[in-house]
Structures are given as structure tokens and as C-alpha cells.
Amino acid sequence: MQTVGIKYAGSKLKLLPQILNIIAEVKPKTVFRCFSGTTRVSQALAQSGYAVISNDTAPFSKVFATAALLNKKPAAYYQSFINRLNGLDDINGWYSQNYGGLNIDGKSIGADGLKKPFQLHNTVKLDAILLELDNYQFESEIERDTILACVILALDKVDSTLGHQVSYLKEWSKRSFNQFKIEFPFTIVEGQHKVLQQDANTITDEIDLAYLDPPYCSANVKMPSSRVRYAAYYHIYNTICLGDKPELFGKAKRRLDSSDKISYSAYEDFKGTAAQDRLFELFSNLNTKHILLSYNDNGIIKLDDLVSHIKFNYKLLSITKLGYKKHVMANMVWTNEWKIDSANNEYLILFEK
Fold first, then answer.
1. Separation CA 176–CA 218 (nearest Å)
2. Pairing relationship of beta strands 207-212 and 30-34 according to DSSP bridges
3. How far is the C-alpha of 305 from the C-alpha of 347, rounded, in Å?
4. Listed residue (61, 211, 236, 226) closest to 149, CA to CA
5. Which residues make Cβ contacts (< 8 Å) with residue 254, sequence separation at least 6?
6. SS3 breakdown of the chain: % helix, strand, coil, rounded to 5?
7. Bridge-partner residues for 53, per DSSP?
């Protein structure tokens, strides 16, 4: 089984075998993948023979899901167009001006003096490619999204970040010196799949099992109250998918609509019980027989409260505890004052409605 995706905070790539084994126990036919992210789990489910409904409000996630689940055309179909894109002359455009930097004594420096996520020799390629895509008449939205997913995967191989786009490295990463080159890595999957961008509470499809992996906020009270939302973590990829040139703010030049004051998710709300109430509401609203929930013992909702709610309202089938490596951000020097000594376990909780 081969899945593809970008570096992603919260990726379940290493947990795929355990997730698939647990899902197989209840023998579903249709699986709803909520909060699908880069669609690693959706891809694995589809390759395992399930009918998959992949849902996430993020534009980049919709593009990945379309390429991974809905595209039925092989690499050979796209190759001549990909070769054409890779051979375009450089253009110093909007992405280069905002996200392209020079290598000065190994440091990442943009024309504005700020750190950048990509070297200029790669953003001028990106600008040329995106201009070509803007002017190209695709036969379908599936083809457009498939090419965009390939562009993002290529960018992920030459970035200079910690795996997200809310801060960039002071010194260029080794991979940032590589040449940006589009390739086609997707595996065509059989079956009837769906890609959605909805509030999961509004989805009425009948499903056999829902796999939930909400972007739960940290329960670490030492952290400052202003916390970047998931909507901001991959703002450059979202902009590429939306095809706009939004108003930007901050040193990372994030989309203004990804700011904490505008972008909001109850699942990441660390005040009161908003996250807990929203999650419990989702349990109730989903039209499914089984739910498999991924949860971390550092989440804002107390694990004991979560399990107690499930036991009281549903039939708890199993809880699988897995040790999980903390994200690299947990070891940054500037986060020392926020650090707490705690385990970092992932739990796969299976229950029946």
C-alpha cells in the first residue's frame, strides 16, 4: 500500500496499520473520513476496498482528496503537460515576491528582510506554472485538482519549514536547494468515492463507520492564549488551490482570513467546553453505526471525560493505546517556557451507536 502526502502536523501515516486493523473488525462497506487533511487515511481506506467519503473544509485537502480518490487517468495521460510545466521560463511574480528568498551565507532572507519558506530559484518556477494553469482550459475540475496536488507535493520537497507555514527556518534546509520539479505520484483507486467540503454535522449520507481525527487544541495551560489555527498551517497551499492573491499579514505573510480573529474552529477552542460540546454533537449527528476516534492525551478534552461520555451514550467496543512521537515544535528552544512533562499517547477508540 502506497499513500502520498505532504509533511503534516497530526499525520496518521505511522498509525495506518492499526487504524486499518481496527476498522476491519467491524467490516464496513462505506467509511466516512472526517477532518481528512492530506488524505493519507482516505487513500489507505480506498486502497483497502472501502467506499470512502472524504471531508475537510480546507481547500488543499479537497484538492488532495480529488487527486487521490476521484482521478481515474494514469500518469501517462498527464506526463506531457507536466513536462511542459517543468520547462516553462521563470517568472518573478506574486509568490516570489512574498515567499521567495535568497541564500545569503546560508541564511534565508527575502527582499523584505524576512525569513522565507522557499528559495527564489523555486518560486520563480512556481509563479510560471501557476500563471500557465490560470490560463489553461482543463477538461474537468478533477484534472485541475490533480495537477495542483502534484504542484503542492513538489513544493513540499523543497520547503524550508518545520512542516507547517506559520514560521520558517532561519537557515535554509538542505532540501530547499533542490530543484522544484513536478511529478505524478498518485495511485488510481477503484470504487465509488466522494469528496466533500462541509460541516460534518450537516452530512446526511448513510455510512457504516466514521473515522474522526479532530484538530483538538492543546490542554497545556502554559502556552499563550493566542494559538494558530489549523486553517493557517498550510495557508500557502490553500492560496495555490484557491487561485487568489489575498491580503497578507505578519512575518510569515499568512492569509488574512487565516488569522486567529477570523478563522475559528470550535474543535480548537481552549476556553470552556466548546470543543467538547462540538465533538459530542458530531457523535450524535453522524448517520453511522460505528465511530473510530483518534485522540491524544494532551488534547483539550480530558480523556476520562471523553471515555465516560462514550460509555454512557454508546457501546464502547475497544480502546487501543499507542505511544506517539511528539511534533518537532515541542523541542524548539523558544517553547521551553511552555513545556510540560507529560506522556504523548494516541488512543484509537472504537464505539457503536
1. 30
2. parallel
3. 14
4. 61
5. 165, 166, 232, 235, 248
6. 40, 20, 40
7. 32, 194
pLDDT digits (tens, 9 = 90+) for 234-270: 999 999 999 999 999 999 999 999 887 766 666 666 5
pLDDT of residue 163: 87
CA atoms within 13 A on the CB side of 282: 22
**Helices (H) then strands (E): counts for the chain:** 11, 12
Instruction: Give Dmax over CA atoms of the chain in angstroms.
Output: 63
> What residue segments make up the domains of the chain, in order of their start?
75-185+230-263
Mean pLDDT of the chain: 89
- Nearest-CA neighbor of 126 among 73, 89, 161, 175? 89
For residues 96 and 326, what is the distance between their CA atoms, to the nearest angstrom?
A: 33
The amino acid sitting at 147 is I
CA atoms lying within 13 Å on the CB side of residue 100: 17
Number of residues written out for the chain: 353
Cβ atoms of residues 328 and 162 within 8 Å: yes
Task: Tell me the Cα Rg of the chain.
Answer: 21
